[in-house]
Model the fold of this input.
Amino acid sequence: MQNKINQFLKLQKIDIEIAEFEKSFENLPKEISVMEAKIDSENIKVNNLKEKIDKLEKEMKNYNNEIDSIDNKINEQEEKLFSINSTKEFEALQKETGDLKRLKLEIEDSQIKTMESTDNSKKALAEMEQFFLSEIEPLRTQIEELKSKLKEYTDKKDKLSVERDNKTKSLDQDFLIRYESLMVDNPPVIVPAIGETCSYCCLTIPPQTYIKVLQKTEVVSCPHCRKILIPEENPDE
Ligand SMILES: [Zn+2]
Done:
């Protein structure tokens, strides 16, 4: 029994090392995805602004076309005025021309607003692109670095896991199943009982359980946290 426990204490030492190693890079995937999300959101902002500028420029073009066609109409009507003899017809045409001129003024007002809006958006885009270049673009390099670091760590961890699994082949398989099921909550799995107290959950264990722990003839689990209990003086090796 003692020999069995000692073998598993060795396995536990490896498992603690693996768990600590995993902890050292557990935040990497999150760091990477935070940076990727930042790049995505900045890209969306830049694209939205570009679309807005496109729309404004199209609007501007439409206004120009409308003004051209109004100008043509006004010219036509002004030419017509010379060939009209009836006063009534003359007045009607003059009113129509007046309406067109007012419409043209309205469009020109809108045109100025659109132009201002376009200028502001272009300024904002230039600033945004500058920011993207200096603050966001370098994130790509950082992400690549973190990814290669993560791969390096993952490869190393996989190697450790393979080594560990090879070691477990020579161990008592029944005990191993019990040990592995407890490993789900992370190491340690085997913990000393300090007096009648489990050193892991700090709860008191029944005296008869503690006696069994000291006898070292069977595998005893803490009735509270289910960790495997060994006597305090148990050597590490
Ligand atoms: Zn416990």
In short: The beta strands are 190-194, 197-198, 220-221, 228-231. The chain is about 75% helix and 5% strand.
